[in-house]
Specification:
316 residues; 10 helices; 0% strand; disordered N terminus
């Protein structure tokens, strides 16, 4: 009876410890995500504007000739706030998104460790990143749809007489209401789920793998606990660049699918979008907005990982 009692106490302590670890990852992930969003959102706005601008009529130039032109036009037409358009949707969900990402990664780390506290290999971190990417895709898809529509609508609205924009959104909730009412209900919010999964799973595998690889390189071994903030910033920046470098064409396909008109769609699906972009614009079309994405990825992910690590460390 005494042995049984102490066995129950031990199990309760173990469960409580796991709950505490989850809470720490949730908190640190939230702080990291907020830092990433604040630093990176203007770059993301320009990326989506460049990705979603339609092909011009024969003999006509593109609305935006490049990233800096998109910045100038956005500032002139909408002011500084235009660079933060669509931030409400990811800001509202950033806590949940990054909490899920880092918590699932943390739980997978615990499953793969040979003993508590043991460092993982780079390959194990790749597996953890892929699992976290799978889990977070179902939250990322509706959030990205809302964000992309808000960011892209000004580009689509003034693209020219051949482009029709059926609705002008007043904000994130307005997008959600319109989609739920007019685009198939909840299913409409998950438009683009396939390319979102194809982006998040390999992208996060590459990101967390690269993050661990750079940390181990800088630490000179698998024990990275002694790294300073500068090293974490470098590792986080490289990790973010690895995410986008590995999946960028998929992100272009996701963006055009999510901003495509529901009643008169230009694309029948992800593969159709890929083929049409490649046919009309070549390989270059699959890398529209790549410059702003890479410019964003380094500082934004450096801020995210640093904020996560500092917060997680302060929580014990």
């Amino acid at each position: 009876m005494v042995i049984w009692y102490w066995s129950l106490i031990g199990q309760a302590d173990c469960s409580f410890a796991k709950m505490v670890d989850v809470a720490k990852d949730l908190t640190a992930g939230t702080v990291g995500g907020a830092a990433q969003l604040i630093v990176g959102h203007p770059f993301d706005t320009i990326k989506v504007k460049l990705q979603s601008q339609p092909a011009p009529a024969p003999g006509q130039p593109l609305k935006y000739s490049g990233a800096m032109d998109a910045v100038r036009q956005t500032m002139a037409a909408e002011g500084p706030g235009g660079l933060y358009k669509g931030m409400g949707a990811p800001l509202a969900s950033v806590a949940a998104f990054n909490a899920v990402l880092f918590t699932v990664r943390g739980q997978m780390e615990a499953l793969l460790r040979s003993e508590p506290g043991a460092p993982l290999t780079i390959n194990q971190q790749v597996v953890c990143g892929a699992g976290a990417g799978l889990a977070v895709s179902f939250l990322a898809c509706p959030t990205e749809l809302i964000k992309c529509r808000l960011q892209a609508q000004s580009a689509l609205a003034s693209a020219g007489p051949t482009t029709t924009v059926a609705v002008k959104y007043g904000g994130p909730m307005d997008v959600a209401r319109h989609v739920l009412k007019s685009e198939g209900g909840t299913r409409g919010l998950f438009k683009g789920l396939v390319p979102t999964l194809a982006r998040e799973v390999p992208g996060n595998a590459a990101m967390f793998g690269a993050y661990e690889a750079i940390k181990q390189y800088l630490a000179g071994g698998r024990d990275t606990s002694g790294l300073g903030q500068g090293s974490l910033i470098v590792a986080g920046g490289v990790a973010g660049a690895s995410f986008w470098a590995s999946i960028y064409p998929i992100d272009v396909v996701k963006s055009v699918i999510q901003v495509d008109d529901f009643k008169n769609p230009k694309y029948s699906g992800s593969f159709d979008a890929f083929r049409k972009i490649l046919a009309s614009e070549g390989v270059k079309g699959l890398y529209k907005g790549f410059g702003p994405a890479m410019a964003r990825s380094v500082p934004a992910n450096a801020a995210c990982f640093l904020a996560y690590e500092v917060t997680r460390s302060s929580l014990g």
